[in-house]
Amino acid sequence: MNTGRSEPVEVAAMADGTKAEKAEDERGLGSRAPEFVRARRVLHMSWQVGVFVVGLAVVVAGVIMLPLPGPGWVVIFGGMAIWATEFVWAQLVLRWTKRKVTEAAQRALDPRVRRRNIILTVIGLLIIGAIAGFYLWKFGLVMPWKIEDQ
Known about the structure:
This protein is mostly helical. Helices cover 72% and strands 0% of the residues. The chain is built from seven helices and no strands.
């Protein structure tokens, strides 16, 4: 295809920011295992089982971190990235997730959305402050489990 440039098509596509993402998305789906592993069926199946088990362990650790302290979602997406090295379904889910996160980040940078978020945050902080002020006015610095019938 003639792009009007002396560079190869891949380089010309990478020069444009929007086409760089598209070129990355068009990268082949499927296993990223070394060629000698893919050449032997039993070895490739063992490789896939190993990748699945490691990815599952990481995803389970991320799910455990959701209610506990820790970067739960980051670890879950890390497990998905491990799975995406070997399984097409994980690659498609990861691409969809990346696209949605990028769209959400772009929407969050919209001035109207930022202004709305700031207003809602201020209203929420005012409500929390009013509740805390009422509690301190009514009970002082006494914890709820030490309040006697008044």
